[in-house]
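Render NAD-dependent epimerase/dehydratase family protein in 3D.
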Amino acid sequence: MKVIITGATGMVGKGVLLECLDHPEISEVLLINRRQISIKHEKIKEIIHQDFGNYDSIKDQLAGYDAAYLCMGISAAGLSEAKYKEITYDYTLALAKVLYNHNANMTITYVSGQGTDSSEKGRTMWARVKGKTENDLLNMGFKQAFMYRPGAIIPLKGIKSGTRLYQFFYDYFMWLIKLLKFLFPKSIVNTTQLGQSMINVTRSGYEKNILKPSDILRTSK
């Protein structure tokens, strides 16, 4: 199985990457990044690409893959709706359209978030944008499309968050996340479980298109 990952320099994407590298059924992992990742592995192919709104220059290199794990994301803090939509929606759909033209039978997964607004009409800006992104991906026509809404995520295997505020929280308040995990075991996932879940739903499918933490835990086994 050959897969594509975006956002592999971030916490979620790196977690998914590490699980793909360890999985015996995955033979190749194509990373699309703006900067080179520090991990070296025989399975990794890497494309350094700067314009995430246009993939014409690399589209021929995106053929022949079985799945795409879209893990690229950014916090909405301090961003206008137009800028957040460009990064979250426009960049994601630009790649998805190219992938669909190459192989509509592939599996696509998208990391969204708890609280995403599927109606696209709520007051919260990021939730509306994520909702539109999810809806358009689901309606594009891929054989399998899964939207991931993980909520709180525990980073494992030495993974750090690229967002300073999030990493500060992990550094000083991980005890609180672990306490919540103990009290509500089906409400919090880790980076390993996210990666394993994506691989498993690619291989075996799942009954739901939108996966909440309990679904992620269930499909990670």
